[in-house]
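Worked Example 4.2. Consider the chain below.
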Amino acid sequence: MLLRHVAAMADHAAQAQAELHGSDAPHGHVRLTAVPWMIGQGLLPLLPEWATGMPDIRLSLLGAHDSFDLLRGEADIALRMARPEAQGDVIARKLCDVPFVVDGTGPGWIGHVGDMAHLPQAQWTQEVADTVTLRLSDQGAVAEAVAQGLGRAWVPRCLARDPEGAHGTRTRALWCLTHPRTRHAPAVRAVCDTFLPLVVRRLCG
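Applying the procedure from the previous section yields the following structure tokens:
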């Protein structure tokens, strides 16, 4: 079911991009915010291919754990992994469920501290970990620590060293937030229609 959903979104993205090429190409500046690991490992690898089809869109990726305020115009699109609270006119749309898996080897676990201490993966770790030998405050750093053989940890499956060999799948919802005043702007709509489906395929496929 998930794979069919992701494939359908990818087909929609390709169709939308083709339609946009058949009309006046969208142009302008779009600001997209997400947590740092999602930008570094999830979005950046997609940009070279996507940008060739959207040469007139200037994309700014704002990596932060704190939410930029869409109502104050600090960002045009926000990707969040927590169900958003009501924020005035902000429109929230669930994109997919991001699978997390246990990755790594060794007796010790890699835990979480700081901004990550309250997240679901921190709670999952507490449920199963006998010994936490290292705690980190960034999901990208957790995945890198696993890659360096420093222990086991819950990581997004797209960051796992061997996604097929990992186990213990759980999920977190990925949400897209936009503002009604800007979501229909041609450049913002182009990013939502052609870039976000690629993000879904990478993070949730």
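The chain is about 35% helix and 25% strand. Helices lie at 2-21, 36-43, 47-53, 120-128, 139-147, 186-204. Compare this with Example 4.1 before moving on.
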